[in-house]
Amino acid sequence: MSNPKRSKIIAGNWKMHKNRGEAKALAEAIAKGVNGEKDLPIVVLFPPFTSVSTVQDVVKDTSVNLGAQNMDHHDSGAF
Prior knowledge:
single chain, alpha/beta, 3-stranded parallel beta sheet, 29% helix, globular
């Protein structure tokens, strides 16, 4: 049974995948897909640290939220 007081959230943690250009393109596509839609869950994007400011620029005037994640010493991957 769901709790009516709790909000539903869809969150995408990109780990260390996507460069700035790829992150921007994905954020734009997601923002375009959810903007103007009613009754959607809260949408939160967690891009790689290197793309946070790029994605922030994309989602600043949209219904998409932005989060941050930790860093890792690897060049890419699910870390």
